[in-house]
Amino acid sequence: MTLKVSDVGEKELVKYIISNSKGITPDDTAITEFDSTNLISTTDMLIQSRHFPKNMSYFHMGFKAVTVNVSDLAAMGAEPFGFLLSMAIPKNLRLDDFKEILNGVLSACDYYSIPLIGGDTNEASEIIISGTALGLCDEPLMRYDYNLGDVIAVTGDIGLAALGFELEDLDNVYSEKALKPKARLKEGQILKKYGATSATDITDGLASELYEIKKDDFGFMIHEELLGISDEYKQLANELDLDYLDLVFHVGEDFELLFTISKDNLEKLPIYYKVIGEVTDSDVIELTLENGFVETIKNKGYEHYVSE
């Protein structure tokens, strides 16, 4: 039997690349020693039919292309240095629409204080935007430096974008989160300064990110009651015949930071955060439901080649 990439999925392909390459770290970004500090570099490609909701404006397509890359810098606690933009667009795209995409990119670069320093253009059958963000950081936040007893927290509410993608009404906080995402750049820098022991950004879903940062002999216990899922959220999910916990754990696109930190340092944080669990020695990732039952969280999230 000949395997196809859809049989293994994106994460296995990335593991294959890392295992056959020198100098690549299994983290949110590449880390390269550079002029007495570290160059933090990351790249993300967005394809119109896969990554941009149908009701997303051209402006916010451009803005999101910067956000997804800056979000990786945020997870490392890095300071922005520069942004490279490559775009492939249909030849019949209206010039005004192209300008709107570029305006979104430039607006995001201004918002995150990361200058556009170069790029490339090409032709394609649909809009494809590939960005590369560069940053600098002396001691980047890593995924695996947490300790037993550390708390697990997030920088904001999660699952909002997942629900927003499903709603036809655009005038609500859920659609706002889905169509106009923002990276937690300053929060990442503050987390590094105040001693966070690990961090990653939530793009593929909370469950997927928890599995990404899990190391051998350690586990995580997440508490449903700490997630702060509102009655309105549950009701809207029910009306759409969707499982609200599935939306929160397995969809993603929140661009909040998931992080671990000691209890002592947590109390010093000068930013908004929400504690959702703790690091354990169970070697599994579990959820304590509101009714007290405990279940294993499945390793499922958005993944290229296998996700519909």
Summarize the topology:
Layout: H1 5-8, H2 10-19, E1 30-34, E2 37-47, H3 48-51, H4 58-76, E3 79-89, H5 95-111, E4 116-123, E5 128-136, E6 151-154, H6 160-164, H7 173-179, H8 185-193, E7 198-201, H9 206-213, E8 219-223, H10 224-227, H11 231-239, H12 244-250, E9 257-261, H13 263-266, E10 274-280, E11 285-288, E12 294-296
Parallel strand pairs: 3-4, 8-11
Antiparallel strand pairs: 1-2, 2-5, 3-5, 6-9, 6-10, 7-9, 8-10, 11-12
Features:
308 residues; alpha+beta; 7-stranded mixed β-sheet; 5-stranded mixed β-sheet; 13 helices; 35% helix
What can you tell me about this protein's structure?
This protein starts with a helix and ends in a 12-residue tail after the last strand. The protein is globular. Helix 4 (58-76) packs parallel to helix 5 (95-111) and helix 4 (58-76) packs parallel to helix 8 (185-193). The strands form two sheets. Strands 7-9-6-10-8-11-12 form a seven-stranded mixed β-sheet, sandwiched between helices. A five-stranded mixed β-sheet has the order 1-2-5-3-4. It is α+β, with helices and mostly antiparallel strands and 308 residues long. The protein has 13 helices and twelve strands.
